[in-house]
Every structure is written in C-alpha cells, then in structure tokens.
From TrEMBL:
Cofactor note: Binds 2 divalent metal cations per subunit.
Any one GO molecular function term: aminopeptidase activity
Active-site positions on this chain: 223 (proton acceptor)
Keywords: Aminopeptidase, Hydrolase, Metal-binding, Protease
The protein's name: Peptidase M42
Lineage: Bacteria, Bacillati, Bacillota, Clostridia, Lachnospirales
Cofactors: a divalent metal cation
Binding, Zn(2+) 1: 72, 189, 244
Top-rank taxon, per record: Bacteria
C-alpha cells in the first residue's frame, strides 16, 4: 500500500469538500459532490430520505455482522432571524456556532431566489474609535450583525435583494495546508473525516481488499443538531463507528499527530469490546494513538443508540485543536486515522 498516495488523495478531497458550503439543513451541494466521487471510484451510493449518503464498500455474503462507518458532511453555520431597520442581518446559529468565533469573518448569504451575497459578521457599532464599550461588550448573536456588501441602509433595501428571514449564512472556511503538514480550516469537523472515509473506500477498491464483513459508509447531514445518525442504518448492521474529531486540549492526551480512540463522551461509555478492539488494532499496527474521554462531546453514534438502534458503538478521529472554531490538525493524525481503519477492518 502506498500510504502517501492515499494521504494525498484524502487531503485533496478534504480541501475540495471544505470549499463547498454545507451548514446543517443546506447540504445538497456537498452530497452531490460526494455521490459523484463515490461513482468515480466505482461504487453505487444511495441517498437517504433526509439527504445523507449510504454506500456499501465491501461485502462478505456469509457475514450477517455488518459494520457502518459514519461521518457527517454538515457543518456549523447561521440563518437569518431578523432584518434590522438599518439594513443589517441578525443570525440564529445552526449547530454549536460560537458568536465570538465569527467576529470579523467573511460570509455568504444564500437566498431562496438563487442569489448569493457576501458580507461580514461584526459586532454592532464595530468601530473602536466610536464605540467606548467595544472591549467590554459580550459577543452574542444579539450584539452582532452581518453587514451586507451592498448599498443597503434600510430593511426595505435588504428585502429588495430578496434576502429573507430563514436564508442560510455560510462562513468562509479559510482553508490552509502548510508545508509543514498542518491543515487549518473551519469545519474540519467533520469534513476531514469525510475525506478519510473516501480514502478508505479508494483503498478498498484499488487494492482489491476482501473485507471480512460487510461494510457501509454513511455520511449524515444533521449531526450538528443531534439527529444525524438516528435513522437509515441498515438492518444488518451490528456495529457502528463514528469517524469524527479527536479533541486536543487541557486534561486530554491526544495530539494533532495521533488518532484518538474515545472511551467515553457526555452521553456515556463507548462499547468496551469495540474500544478494546480499536486499541488492539492500533498497537498491532504500530499506529500512534491516544485514548481519551470527552466531557462536552456527542456523536452520530450516540444519536443512533438514543434512537433505539441495537448496535455496538465506537468513535475515532484525528486529533484537532480549537474545535468549533478555526480548527487545526496535522497530516500525521489524519494518516494515523486512515491506517487504524485499515488495520481494524481490512
């Protein structure tokens, strides 16, 4: 196996997917891209009722113990909740978007008429030389606004552009891949894992891998609001592994260069046998990994169990710093996540 070739593919696909705006509820463009990429690899993906993607990448006809790998293509974003009398937009968040992480960020407003406008998220009265309370003002969605890059000075001016309450606002991901191997971007959660799973699908196809069990890949579109993995899991699936982010921060052991194996999150412990199997595969494959507990985290697999699916569950992902902000990972952590999948499944 040419590891670097698959890593290059993963990084390339991740950057392409990051360039496609796809906050929760607005994922059609990115799922169309991913569906076409599956087809180019020789697979036959199917779209779920909610708009996700399900693709079988390997089958053992004698196995009734199928496994499902999940990642999500939806990201954080905003929705227009008010149009002010001065021609600015007030947002409500889609998912766990933090207002203080959006200040001075460029964004796009997608109207239902098909027009797209640019703008910038600012705090109200944003000039330091004018606003004596600039430093002390809490950055909240009701103290911030989108300044549209059009000559608008009133609510009527904005309405004339066909901008309406309920329109989607997407933030610039600002994706950068450094020469030293760091991938920096908004929305690595969870588009880097989508790239990893596409890389694994490519590996299975090109290396003619005979998987020991049937394996599905499932890209969900509502993970950021808590019900992405709650439905559409095939009935023959007995194990689900979410490929999401490994967190990097105080009290945790994971770094940006490792694959994280999660033992417990805010919902509860992951299945003991699955976690043990992932650890064993990492050790046998001499893969750099960490085991951690994430106290403020929930995954697609959690929503699957909450919805009543009778499956064993696990969670892995590359170490990522500054989650839900301007995130950063490293190609080593991305490669280690891919390699863990190859050792655990192939």
């Amino acid at each position: 196996m040419n590891q670097l070739a698959y890593l290059d593919y993963i990084l390339d696909q991740t950057q392409k997917i990051l360039s496609i705006d796809s906050p929760t509820g607005f994922t059609k463009n990115v799922t169309e891209y991913v569906m076409e990429e599956y087809r180019s690899l020789g697979y036959s993906p199917k779209q779920t009722i909610k708009g996700g993607i399900l693709c079988e990448i390997g089958s053992d006809e004698n196995s009734n113990d199928a496994l499902c790998l999940e990642a999500h293509v939806d990201t954080l974003g905003g929705m227009v909740s008010q149009i002010t009398e001065t021609g600015r937009l007030i947002l409500t968040p889609l998912g766990g978007l933090e207002p203080n992480n959006t200040e001075s960020e460029n964004c796009k407003i997608y109207t239902r008429s098909g027009k797209i406008y640019s703008g910038t998220m600012q705090m109200k009265n944003a000039s330091v030389h004018v606003n004596k309370n600039y430093r002390s003002t809490a950055r909240e969605f009701d103290t911030m606004e989108v300044v549209i890059d059009e000559k608008v000075n009133s609510k009527e001016d904005v309405l004339s552009l066909h901008i309406r309450v309920g329109d989607i606002v997407c933030f610039d991901p600002r994706t950068v891949l450094t020469e030293s191997g760091y991938l920096k971007s908004r929305f690595l959660d969870d588009k880097v894992s989508v790239g990893i799973l596409l890389g694994f699908a490519k590996y299975v196809k090109e290396e003619n891998i005979k998987l020991p069990r049937k394996v599905y890949q499932y890209f969900t579109v509502f993970e950021e609001v808590g019900h992405g993995g709650s439905g559409s899991i095939p009935t023959d699936v007995t194990e689900v592994i979410s490929v999401d982010l490994g967190c990097v921060g105080d009290g945790l052991t994971c770094t940006e260069y490792q694959v994280s194996i999660c033992a417990k999150d805010s919902v509860g412990p992951y299945h003991y046998d699955v976690v043990s199997g992932l650890i064993e595969a990492a050790e046998h494959g001499h893969i750099d990994y960490a085991v951690d507990i994430y106290p403020h985290y929930a995954s697609d697999v959690d929503s699957a169990l909450t919805a009543g699916h009778e499956v064993r569950h696990g969670l892995i992902g590359p170490g990522v710093y500054a989650t839900h902000g301007y995130e950063r990972s490293h190609k080593d952590g991305i490669l280690n996540t891919f390699l863990l999948l190859t050792k655990y499944l192939a």
